[in-house]
Amino acid sequence: MDEDGQEWVNLGRLWDLVLFLGSENNTGKFAALASHLPFCKGSCIGFSVPRFEPGQFSGKAKGHDTYVADLQTRTIQPLEESPGYCNLFQPPPYPFSAQS
Hints:
Elements: E1 17-21, E2 30-33, E3 44-50, E4 64-70, E5 75-78, H1 83-89
Parallel strand pairs: 1-3
Antiparallel strand pairs: 1-2, 3-4, 4-5
């Protein structure tokens, strides 16, 4: 936002920043430096959108789908196709095995 001119400015990229935006009921919104996350690159936005049944336009969502938008390549792909970003949303393996 150009506060002097009172207008939005198109940056085109976020440099070393990675943004993560949740859906309307998801409170997980944060930014991080890609240089601090070895599996991520800058100028990307991770975001979730509600998943509805075909033909359903309102009511309770059936879950959420998460995507990664790359502002440099101008592409959007599902989180599953962005393995580095999956590491942020999936818990690490449990270090202990179950014993009988």
